[in-house]
Amino acid sequence: MRVHKFKVDDVVNLPLGYKILSCQELDHTIFVWALVDPHETQTVTVQFKIIGTGRDIDAEQWTHLATLIDDNLFVWHVFIDENS
Known about the structure:
This protein has strands at 2-7, 11-15, 19-26, 29-36, 43-52, 63-70, 74-81. With 84 residues, it is mainly beta. It has one domain. β6 (63-70) and β7 form a beta hairpin. The two termini are 24 Å apart.
């Protein structure tokens, strides 16, 4: 197993069996670091949603992953739907 970095978009293809370890902002871009098998050829499609404080979200569909503060100006909340 290895830790790999993936840019968070609306949809991300992750290797089958992944385990997300962390979600952080780096140079104004949001990433997840996940423990993956580097030899796994199958992927799964995972949906992410990034919203600002005060925005609506369907809490039954989305699971909170992280809250990030960008340059002490904006607060972003990252959600994941692993059942997509």
